[in-house]
Every structure is written in structure tokens, then in C-alpha cells.
Amino acid sequence: MISDNPGPSVGVVRFMTWLTAATFAISAALATDNTLIVITPHWEGIKREYERAFSDWHRQHFGTPVKLDWRDVGGTSDLLRYVDSRFAANPNGGDLDVAWGGGIDPYFELQKKRHLIRHDPPTETLARIPAEVGGVPMFDPTHEWFGTAISTFGICANKRVIERMKLPPVQRWSDLCRPELLGWVGGGDLRKTGSIHMSFELILQAYGWERGWQVITRMCANTRNFHGTAPTTVKEASLGNVAYAMAIDFYALMQVGREGPGNMAYIQPPEVIAMNPDCVGVFRGARHRQLAERFVNYLLSNEGQSLWMIPRGQPGGARNFNIERMCIVPALYQKLRGVTVVPVNPFELSIAFRYDPKKGGDRWQIVNDLFGACIIDVHRELVAAWKAMIARGELDEPSAVAELSRLPLTEDEVMKLSAGKWKDPLMRARKSIEWQVWARDKFRRIAATTTK
């Protein structure tokens, strides 16, 4: 029997197919518009807790939840390279919405390259945040970046190892130069981790260029190895592979909380106390600009700031991860006293040292390259030279110490190069190899010198 219904016409079928495709496209577009793309070096716990909290906050204030698309490309230096590559591929932006974390220096670099745009948070929000602490700005006067948390940099110590191995106590960075600590210091590769870079830059500025490199070179001669991530460096101390490790405060305090204050400690060298804000900024050409600006506003709000401070499981605090860090709003330290486990109010610290963030930002890349070529890539030769100096009793001889730490260029030459020619990748590669060969020859010569 032949049906009287001939079925849908070709035109109807085509229309239905188009309608289905259009429906999927609209749904995908709506989903994309509700997704914020954030590039960050923050660890998983911070990302998970802040995604949940921001989504809840956005639903409460604007009626919809939010999904965060995290782009993790490694440490701070890797982040900068990735952002540069995305803007090289698309000069108008659009691939990324927000940069979050990595300290302050990278944001000077992003700003200098015009990768960020202005955003004006509510006036009352910024009024709660000091403009600067110890010479370090807490937010950009032109509103292209804002501090969201505060970090200090110091030393994570394993008390059990120190006692068992009868190692000397350490209070200052220069104490890590002592010959008894050969092989007992943990370090990181500043080319890959921004917090380790910041520790070295603070030493250079606090001690001065020449004296700073003397401290850094001998400290690195005592270093067991250079890890590519800041958490791994601190874990080396927790595991007892080293007695002392360079550390950003919150990674060290996590180990203290896990192992107990009788076993682990965080040491803040008194000569180099600097408040370093962990910043956020909106990218030029951000596809989801409105959502990006709301994210910044949330991070600076009482809810976003309290999340750093309130312990896991407490109302307003984290749910699954311990993320205790110092917030950037002074009033919250008093408000949360007795609730927060953050041990110190950084705004009450006496800070004699004034960090120059512009200098640190301007020479970020060239210091990385110089350090990598003259210390990390020739570490074996450096250690051999240091051992020879110890054997010859030259530790207190100024000329010997100066020669060990001597660099192939001065601080003025570094600043001039960083402002111009160092942007040429071919020149950077050529000079890095040249410096590496120079440093290896120098250390081999020191190691081969006969005893006086």
C-alpha cells in the first residue's frame, strides 16, 4: 500500500538540518561566553577553590555560573613566552582573557608590551588597598594590573636534618654560603619559576650587584640541584634531601603545617623583607572582557580576599585544599584574627629594604639568561671550583671570592642590553653560549689552581 504522506520535502529537510546546526552553534557560543580563559602558574588547589568560589559569587550577583578554562604552561617565564607567542600569532588578542599570578615583575613586562588593558574596579574596593608597601606598588596607578595576594621570600628549613647532621643555623641568605652546607642547599631554576627568580633578584638588590652575586654564587655552589618548579624545591627540604631550600612563604608554610613546626620552619631573612604582590590583569582583546573584569572585582572583594585567609572547612574558606596566603587588604587581618592561620600581618612588618620593581621587571629576562649560562649550566664546574677554594682555605680571601663570582658584564651593561638588543632571540642565544663557555673556563681555571 502506498502512503498518501510523501514525507518531508528536500527543503524542509535542509531547513531542519540548518536549524539543528544553528541550535548547537548558539548553545556552544553561549557556553563559550560563560567561560573565562585564565593563564596562571598557580597550583591546582588555588585554581579549584577559586573557580568554585567565583562561580558561586557570579551566580549570586549575575544569575549564572561560570566555568574557568585554565591555561597552565609552566612557571612565570614560560607564561610570558606563551603570551608573547599568542600575541605574535594574533596581534589583536582574543586567545586569552586574564593573567593571574606569578608575582609583580611579569606584569611590568606584559604592560610594557601593551598586552594588558585598563580596568577600573569600584572606587571603594581600591580604597581598601594601600598604593605601595616598602616601595613596591600593590596595584598599577593606570589600573592595568592589581595585586591579589602578598608573598614573601625566604628559606624552608628541615630541623631534623639540621640537628642530625649537626649543620650550622641559618638566618640570612649569606649564611647559606658556609662551606659546611655543601650539598645541603636546595635551589630552583629561575628560568622556569618566577618565585625563585624573585628570591635571587631580591638578593641582588638588597646586597648590591657585586656583593649579591658573591652571595648567590657561593650559595649555588652549595646547592644540591636546581628544580624546575618551586613546590619541588621545598619538598626536597621536607623529604630531607636538603636541609635548607629557597622558598616562597606559602609553599614553605604548607610543609610546616604538614610536618609540624617541630620538624620544619620558614625563615624570613631580616635583611631582605619585601612584599611582593601576586597580580592579575585583563588582556587586550579579551574575548570575554566583561567576565574578566568581574573576575578581577571578585578577587579584590572581601569574599575573594577572605578565601586566601580562612582555613579549609570554615565558612567563607576553602573546601578541599589548604591555600592559606596573605591577603592584600590590611583591615581583614584584624577582622579575621582568631580565625585565620596566616601567622603574621605583613603590613605591620618593619621594612628597611626597598625593592625596585621597575628594575627587576626591566632585567627579568637577561638575569635569567645570565644566571642560567654562568651558574646552572656550568654547575658541575662551579662546585669543583668551590671545593678547591675550600681545600685551599680561600673562603675569606676577597680576591678569590670576587673571581669566583665575577661576571662577563657589569650591572650597567646588563641594564643597557635589557633595554634594547636583548629582545633579539638570535643575539640572546649567541651570548648565552658565549657566557657559558666563559664561565666554564673560569671555574676550571680556579679548580686547577695549585695550593699556595
Q: What number of domains?
A: 2
Helix content: 40-55%
User: Which term fits the overall shape?
Assistant: globular
**What separation lies between the terminal Cα atoms?**
114 Å
Secondary structure tally: strands = 13
| CATH topology-level fold name of the largest domain | D-Maltodextrin-Binding Protein, domain 2
The assembly state of the depicted protein chains is single chain
Return the structural class: alpha/beta
Largest sheet: 6 strands, mixed
The count of helical stretches stands at: 19
Q: Give the mean pLDDT.
A: 89
Q: What is the CA-atom radius of gyration, in angstroms?
A: 26 Å
The top-level CATH class of the largest domain is Alpha Beta
Proportion in β-strands: 5-15%
Low-confidence stretches are: 1-8, 19-32
User: What is the CATH architecture assignment of the largest domain?
Assistant: 3-Layer(aba) Sandwich
What is the fourth-level CATH superfamily of the largest domain? Periplasmic binding protein-like II
In a few lines, what is going on in this structure?
49% of the residues lie in helices and 13% in strands.
Task: Describe the model.
The protein has 452 residues and is α/β, with parallel strands linked by helices. It has two domains: 30-151 and 276-348, Periplasmic binding protein-like II (D-Maltodextrin-Binding Protein, domain 2), CATH 3.40.190.10; 155-274 and 356-448, D-Maltodextrin-Binding Protein, domain 2 (3-Layer(aba) Sandwich). Helix content is 49%, strand content 13%. The protein is built from 19 helices and 13 strands. It has helices spanning 10-33, 44-62, 76-89, 105-112, 123-127, 159-164, 194-207, 209-221, 230-239, 249-259, 289-300, 302-309, 330-335, 357-362, 364-376, 379-392, 398-405, 411-418, 425-448, and strands at 35-39, 67-71, 98-100, 116-117, 132-133, 136-137, 146-151, 153-158, 185-188, 223-227, 244-248, 264-267, 276-283. Strands 1, 2, 3, 4, 7 and 13 form a six-stranded mixed sheet that branches. It has a five-stranded mixed sheet with strand order 10-9-11-8-12. A two-stranded antiparallel ribbon has the order 5-6. Helix 2 (44-62) links the parallel strand 1 (35-39) and strand 2 (67-71). Helix 7 (194-207) packs across helix 8 (209-221) and helix 8 (209-221) packs across helix 17. The longest helix has 24 residues, at 10-33. It is globular.
